[in-house]
Design goal:
Oligomer: single chain
Strand content: 25-35%
Helix content: 40-55%
Shape: elongated
CATH architecture of the largest domain: 2-Layer Sandwich
CATH superfamily of the largest domain: Nucleotide cyclase, GGDEF domain
Order of helices and strands: HHEEEHEEEHHEHHEEHEEHEHEEEE
Number of helices: 10
Distance between the termini: 116 Å
Radius of gyration: 33 Å
Length: 412
């Protein structure tokens, strides 16, 4: 009887020692995972994931571990980090749709799934990997949502115990901090890229409003009423021949720095620079009845800025510059043109062609508007703008006759 009690006591002591060692291992693992967050920058997130998975592998001794994060835009899981035995065959990156394969089911059900033998389980999506053995897929949960999956694989069947699964879930809880931080970092970077991209076109205030507009960064288009403004330095070619390249660039930079803020001041969008000129659009992204008036006021302000700039250029020993401006209104296709990686928001249509042609016939300091722009502006009885109708004009690329008007303005 005494011997039996001693045996039972000995077994319990061994079990307690094992549990104690397990707790020490768990605490040591959690501490090391936390330390990597302190010493590794979130900006090098791939390195961060790699370090943490190596730590997990060290403490678990598991054959293969991979970490998958949910791409919410595409609703797919993709691998952001993997730790495998030396010499393991490199595989093509795997992406799983929600509900596809074991990991996809974990995202749907938000619970751990353990397959004792992947070869006989229909739930396993092989994807050409030729995997064998056991697989445990554990959800990574943040704020009640499954944001990723960590996969533990062993080449042997029935490789994991209940305690192993519990340990894996503890690891997933700790890794949820890293995954959440990386996702937040990526979101901030995406927003900053969007902000920078929009700041190329719009005033700072309007760019901030558009940052929250997800549709604005998609490849899409719509027909919108717009007013297009083209401005160009007249007789630019002789200027190139007169000055060296450095001086020409200096003059252009001074010119753009002076006049581009006028576009934003009057609610316009800077579409693009065109050598010695630029294209601006009014009515994007939000149309307003005053867009036509603002475009003309912007053009007058640009001419005012050019006159002021010329005084500075003369003092520096340069010749003054003159600018011609063309403005046209009408419906145009507006949207992001290009690819997902390289897109530009612009407009396409007759107002663009018309404004560019009118700018090409504008003399020094002139502002010429299309017939449509003229009529729309005259619809505002108190616009304070005076026009001088011009003779019937033929515009290249436009079959009908055009009846433009010259804006009459006075600058000190």
């Amino acid at each position: 009887m005494k011997q039996e009690l001693e045996n039972i006591l000995s077994e319990r002591i061994v079990a307690l020692e094992h549990a104690y060692e397990q707790k020490i291992a768990e605490l040591s693992l959690l501490k090391e995972l936390g330390e990597t967050l302190k010493i590794t920058s979130i900006s090098t997130w791939e390195d961060l994931f790699s370090k943490q998975l190596e730590i997990v592998k060290h403490y678990t001794g598991i054959y293969s571990i991979s970490l998958m994060v949910l791409d919410e835009t595409r609703d797919e899981l993709y691998i952001v980090g993997a730790s495998e035995l030396f010499g393991a065959k490199k595989r093509k990156a795997i992406r799983l749709k929600r509900g596809e394969g074991v990991a996809g089911k974990v995202i749907d059900n938000v619970r751990t799934i353990y397959l004792t033998d992947v070869c006989v389980d229909q739930l396993f999506a092989d994807k050409g990997t030729g995997q064998k053995g056991s697989l445990a897929c554990v959800p990574i949960i943040s704020e009640g949502k499954c944001i990723g999956v960590i996969n533990f694989r062993d080449s042997n069947n029935d490789a994991f115990t209940i305690n192993d699964i519990r340990f894996f879930e503890l690891i997933a809880d700790q890794l949820s901090i890293t995954v959440s931080l990386v996702k937040s970092y990526k979101e901030v970077i995406t927003l900053e890229k969007k902000r920078i991209n929009l700041s190329r076109y719009f005033s700072r205030g309007l760019a901030e409003r558009l940052v929250a507009n997800e549709g604005f960064n998609e490849l899409s288009g719509e027909i919108k009423p717009v007013t297009v403004l083209f401005a160009d330095i007249t007789e630019f070619t002789p200027m190139i021949e007169k000055y060296n390249v450095k001086n020409v660039v200096e003059i252009l930079n001074k010119y753009f720095e002076s006049v581009v803020p006028c576009i934003f001041e009057f609610g316009g969008m800077l579409d693009k620079f065109l050598g010695d000129g630029f294209m601006a659009i009014f009515g994007i992204p939000f149309a307003d009845q005053q867009d036509v008036i603002r475009s003309i006021e912007c053009a007058v302000k640009i001419q005012l800025k050019v006159k002021k700039l010329n005084k500075a250029l003369i003092k520096e020993g340069f010749k003054p510059i003159d600018v011609g401006i063309g403005i046209a209104s009408g419906n145009a296709l507006a949207g992001n043109i290009g690819t997902i990686e390289h897109m530009n928001y612009t407009v396409i249509g007759e107002p663009v062609n018309m404004a560019q042609r009118l700018e090409s016939i504008a003399a020094n300091g002139e502002i010429i508007v299309s017939e449509t722009t003229y009529k729309l502006a005259c619809g505002f009885s108190d616009n304070g703008i005076n026009f001088e109708p011009m003779p019937k004009t033929k515009i290249k690329g436009i079959s009908r006759d055009v009846f433009p008007a010259k804006v009459l303005y006075h600058i000190g």
